[in-house]
């Protein structure tokens, strides 16, 4: 609009509640000014019925002279002319005057009010000091006020109010005014609330009669609008708006019911044909013309809706909610169009478009009149809908009146235009002086083609700019598409192309299928007019494969392409390249063989399945796929352990040589999403020695596509964005896959290619190109990456056991596998194996080899059995020669041999032993043996192969199936040797003839076998115990060297019978004679027969020398000679590991033992049982006590020798440390080996030390003995320890 245009005036309601004034009019006139100013100053709380929230209102009043004509007659329920309060004014202060005239006049006033049932009245007596001074006959006892109250206010004394000196500025006057105004506001509000509530009840009753015949919506409309006027009069605009909204909702519901077949009779007046369509009128607070039409029942649907919305608009502006006006206006305009259709109202074509156009601009002008420019720009999101709707209706009028046609409007169009302008009527007085009024704009736009184009483009561009400013790009593109249609109708495709491109790009990106199809059809028409051949062919290809079009339309666009392709090319014509995605979709690719890894010269076929999107069969002259050759994966490195992901093994594959291609959105022209998919590959780094995995990672192959810059003006999905693939020049000498003269039928098709495999390397499919005459359909990028490898493999020899573990001592079969690779095994070629004494190779004359032929794929892959050939094996002292049968390249030769690893008699290192650098030994195909601790034997075999000048060193690991350990047992002076043989393998064995012999036989020691069975079954993880008793004639030798042997055979080898093998175990026993015996006795307290808990008992320990030490043992024990008696020192210690006893006093000490047989030393101490029951004796330990001068003796290894009565060391383990601490806590003294002595040793001071006796040198008679302990007699809780 123009800046100098006058803004419309906002009118307000001038009506106020009527208050009549009777009595002295001159007196009221003198007080009117002050009364009118003071009354609305203080707010009043208005409490309404039906639980509605109270509100604070400012009351105003229209004071008029009392007349009987103002009082409501019977049946008149109008609120605007209803007098809510009647006031009688008097300043009479003389009794005679009161009796003569005032009383009579007041009586007449009361009778009139009583006659009209009006009970809302007030008598105001104005007192003045000046008047009182001029009167001498004033009664001293009674006043005029009292007489008036007695005469008229007997029961309502508050209806008479005194106003003292109202024209003075005294405090008494102010107080009188305040009291009077409060009373006036209260009475006025009470009357207003009472009469308004009665009016609402009457209105509600009238509304409930709406189902009765003869009920009129127009009559009810006037009644509820009266209520709205009252609320507006009180400036309660929100409540007034609610009344109009209720009328709107009620009328809308009746219209909807009419459309559903339930029509009201009064709706017939609104079904009259529309004669005027001059739009909304929002520049008046009340459109009295349309209100009178509604009151007379002559209004049309548009008249009612226009008047109702104009009142709502006025109230919303009063409420300062102008943006809600725009939202309601847009909803109103759409609803009116639908309501006219539901009521089947006859409307002249184009009349509704005129009415909507004028209404949109009227609302916009009204909003512009009450808001400044900054507010309009900030809230354009509320007004842009009206701009767009007005644009659409103006466009519709232009099409209807022929203003968009290339040849201009016809005579019929001109007549239609004249009829439409006639229905607008004359311009309203409010907009006559405005140069940009909606009336003038519409009239000017329909006057000529140029004017229409000017106004239409102005509105369209304004709408587009607003949509872009608020970020609603879809709506902006939609308006732009409408502009493109306008330009196409005007014959200007160049200006339409840009808008169509933007719309198409948006629809494709967001997946609007039907919109994409419709826009592409428009695009094709535009490109054809602009003679853009390449773009038109690409769009035609997309439309030919669009399922949203019917068969006829698709065939038309397909024939456009085929017609162009069949034309003979000119000298300057080039091949047109189109996207393959518009022509066909790649479904899957299958390799044969499935591994897609073949050796040089092998046959490899690729079956490509494509889905042709064309509606008719298309003959393709050549379908070719370009190959990229690389040596990265092929060549000499093309092995079975390649780290590259194979086709058919990724997320798009099925693991059987099938590559599935992802199906892009059917809307996109490139067959893929806007962003290329990730091409991820797994990379593995394996050790060259044992193929163990060192590291793994993921690499992206198409980083250059993902991280490239995207053009904001181009899209991969629109064929006109300048991203079409260039024509592919097919070179006959290049590495390509070709299929000629292929006819693609609509739907799925299968094409077979033969891949070149002449050179080793990696072949990757880059592009796919189908040639149809002068047109090439190109798939510029194939995803996922499809490749196959051609390798030239070196010969490989592998040796692997047929079982999980190779067992030593029994024949084991190993498998030899030779992958010939590119080498051809000729007659006379042989493998030369070095022989070792510990692992001979067993062979028979019937040994044969199997030749397998692979299907061309990389190992492991399916093999075909080619037959068996006999092997010639010759052995000498140092070499075993295996003559190989002739085998062609890329075949597999397999044969088996038996080997035997001898078990050495000496103990070997365990499998868990670490190497010198601290690393654990790793072997392929080995299992954990932490529990069984299997002993392993590594055997090295050197093999000379005919295809290599270097020897191959093969390591085979054998595991000893048994583990043996020995134990020396004592029973007094008798000695026993126990050997435990454990089967630590997974096989079951038969053991026979266990024998224990002395390797240096002596006549003094005899080993007597106590084993009853000669042969026994030993299952996996089971143990066999063998026992021998030692008998001797004189003295035991200081050292025994023994050898245990047993024959074994696996259970599986008994059928047919096999020879038993011998297992040997050698060990040595030192210091086997018993030197000391220990006995202990526990005696209860005196007077008790049994020990009791909590009572001290006596413990007597006897240490007896059994025999004199031998020369070796004597050297270990340091003896002293005192007065001719030779003695040795021992240390004893009494501990209780199970905490059953408390040792009181000294629990350890050093004794001197004479070096003589049967020498005994007794020690007595006190112990206290802590629990009742049969308690085991405390542990008694004896050690060698060596003074600081004694040379330290290093105890030799006893070869896992165990003793059933072995004594624990003080510093041996965690359990014993806990026991020692327990002893200290009970007050015992630890005299030797304490922490202080250890600290002294750390300082380098000479300290005595302890050494344990060897197993069997000390025999404890109390081992396993128990003593009965009774509970204390005064205990109420019994604790019994059962062991």
TrEMBL record:
One BP annotation, GO: early endosome to Golgi transport
Biased composition (Low complexity): 639-649, 1222-1236
Domain spans labelled TRAPPC10/Trs130 N-terminal: 14-325
Location of the protein in the cell: Golgi apparatus
Residue ranges, annotated region (Disordered): 635-660, 1217-1252
Top-level taxonomic group: Eukaryota
The protein's name: Trafficking protein particle complex 10
Alphabetized UniProt keyword annotations: Golgi apparatus, Transport
Cellular component terms per the entry's GO annotation: cytosol; TRAPPII protein complex
Residue ranges of domain TRAPPC10/Trs130 C-terminal in the record: 1038-1270
Domain (TRAPPC10 Ig-like) ranges: 797-958
Organismal lineage: Eukaryota, Metazoa, Chordata, Craniata, Vertebrata
Pfam family name, one: Ig_TRAPPC10
Native source species: Esox lucius (Northern pike)
